[in-house]
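3',5'-cyclic-nucleotide phosphodiesterase, pasting as requested.
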Amino acid sequence: MTSSNYESTASVRTGLQGQKPALQVICLGNSGGPCEENVTGFLVCSVEDGWQRGSTIAVDAGSHLAPIIRILERDFPSISDRRPAPRSIENPVPLQVGNGHGTQTPGLSDDLARTSLSPTPSADGEEPPKPEPTVLQHGPFAGLKMPHESARANALHVLRSYISTYLITHPHLDHLSGFAINTAAFHATSKPKTLAALPSTVDAVKQHIFNDVIWPNLTDEDGGVGFVTFQRLKEGGDVMVGEGEGRGYIDVVDGLGVRAFKVSHGVCTKSPPSHHHRGSVAGLADMQNSQGGGSIAPPNLERSFSQSQHSQFSAPATPGLTPRQSFYAPQQPSPRVSSAPEPCVVDSTAYFIRDGESSREVLIFGDVEPDSISLSPRNRLVWQEAARKIAHGLLGGIFIESSYDDSQADAILFGHLNPRHLIAELQTLATLVAEAKAARAFEKSARKRKRSGPNGLDAVARHAVGESERKRSRSAAGRSVTKDTRRGSLPDHSMSDVGISSPGLDADRNPMDTPTGPMSPKTAGREAGD
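Structure tokens follow.
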């Protein structure tokens, strides 16, 4: 991914062209494996609001508590720096003390030591005195008040007190495993943690993780324990929420709103009809040949069909309630392209996260494939929205993956990007940004010309009134011509000789004057009789 590892930078503050930073993004993990300690995870919080309880969003949580501990072990003045290591009679070599009150087993690294996350009572049974809170002075958690002496205990304090909502892009383990395992730390909190995602992701987590088989049902649905609650988001945003530039953004914590867009993340390995979802596939021709199925439409035709598939209602947040309309208007289902079963695909999500105070945003993608090889290319829709926000100076950063190098063939990208495809996607964004900036500049110029004209807006109003008067004059002229035509019984072809002035043309001609055309013999005779 384009974000850096927590070992090096760990935190990004968005600030464009000297603007005050509005959002802080902490990268907890930036890979998809095989090492489980550094898989996808972010924290997002508002700079203006600072470190308030329940104010932080986790975007994916493949790695979660462990990297927070590592960051604090690096930045927090741990107790191991302030007291000597104890010695034992059996082993005169000093035992290493981890960043907690427990001792570390010799031979284990500090990262692997099992250290208590809570203070250990003293030998006489009395609780040790609580230490004075420490405010971190540097690092991604700078300014956060730490109540414990242990980095591990303080990491747990961050998880329990400050992170309230988990935005999950899709239910693959490298984006979810840390969250599931860390639910053991959610007990005795003041309220459940919120897992916010598109309905398909919520359903997958319910059915395949918190099902009392893979993991206990710790949710508040289907008779679960209640450590986790679900918030089902609507694709594209909710038109009934917010106003102005913030319309459609659903608050997931106080001060931070979200809009979710579906993107494609490769094809499922199962073949329909045993498995159902919509999406894309790399190496399409090879798969079709191996299936021996019907034909698939050309890529451009398939792409045009896929665009209409965004225009659906999202699933309701509560069973039995009618869903509110998303930002996409409902359309008819796409026509079936071929008689062969359509390959099912994995849906992922791109999140626009907006700071309500400053209206500044960041865009964070889950796993995503390029539009150029996708059966359901949906990135362009996200880029169009991003381009408009960039043109208005609202989008401060984009986090997007690149999982392979350019030696990886398209057929084995497995729904991911590599540098050449990422560059192509960013070129699409650059083109859309240029168009959005040009349109914005034209609008500004047009407004400026109207304001700076000789008579300002009054001239514009008079021009509009003049146009209205000319239209009424032309209408009156048309009625007069029709009346004379009926009286004179002019043939139909004579109407071609009737001239009606247009704005800017024949300015000296009175629009009420009716030109005289050639008279029929019958009309000439009547006038001679008069």
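Note for the archive: The chain has a mean pLDDT of 74.
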